[in-house]
Task: structure prediction
Amino acid sequence: MKELSEAELKRIAYNCRKATFLIEKQQIGKITLREKLELRLHLTGCAICVTFMRQSALISQMAKKLVNGDSNALKLDEGFKEQLQKQINNHLDQN
Amino acid sequence: MLQKDPESDIVDKSAIDPQHWVSRYADYLYSYATFRIKDQNLARDLVQDTFLAALERRGKFEGRSSEKTWLTAILKNKIIDVYRSRSSGFGKDVVQASIVAPDEDFFNQDNGHWNDQHEPAELGIEGHDALGNKEFERILAACMNKLPALWLSVFSMKHIDEETTDHICDELKLSSSNFWVIIHRTKVNLRSCLQKHWI
Result:
């Protein structure tokens, strides 16, 4: 791989938008070797994006747990459920 | 449709028991739908539609999956219909606008560096104990609720239901590059919202 010029290094070091984009892409998909190198270079010098990366993974995990967890389950109101059961029963009677 | 048809399983009709559907599954299905479409009234309608569709098709229920899995699969298809009608309802222009709109709020337009007010800070929740933190969960739910509908659809399908990227793009008629832009912006947005309300 060609060596990176100083201007390119500077661009990579500053570009947190690109780095966070690659972090997201890497979390659920594939990034190229070149992108991996860029990301590693960026993260070496950018503690802020390292924090982003840790929090990003945590948010994905938490969202999953939040939505799938029993403890957060919502309840339908009882009146609606009664109606629903009646509707089902009617349907069953017809057949 | 790429998704497996819930009707294509093998027969064990004894496993089906519509008399108990409401008491066993109504809350679960309602909860499942509400988190994914953030509209409680629509979620109620979808639960009703799911039961009615399941009744119509119960002759075809084949007992390979559990009754609950079968009902959830029917509901899931209905949720995707909602996602799809929302994203086409927005029209190409709106989808485009929501994607292309510059993320100048988060990043400096010229060099891509974090803007000060959105710079990630340690939240003190990076450890694993965060996973059980109720207050944090509440804020996360509120932040998810504020996402544009299309973003929430993409986020839920990817991070919560772990669908493949190809499948999501196909269902929501998104190009792969738009998909990645949405994935990125959604996470940056959620993280920033969490930080704003947590600290």
Q: What stands out?
A: DSSP finds eight helices and no strands in chain B. Residues 33 and 43 of chain B are 5 Å apart (CA to CA). Chain B touches chain A through 55 residues (CB under 8 Å).
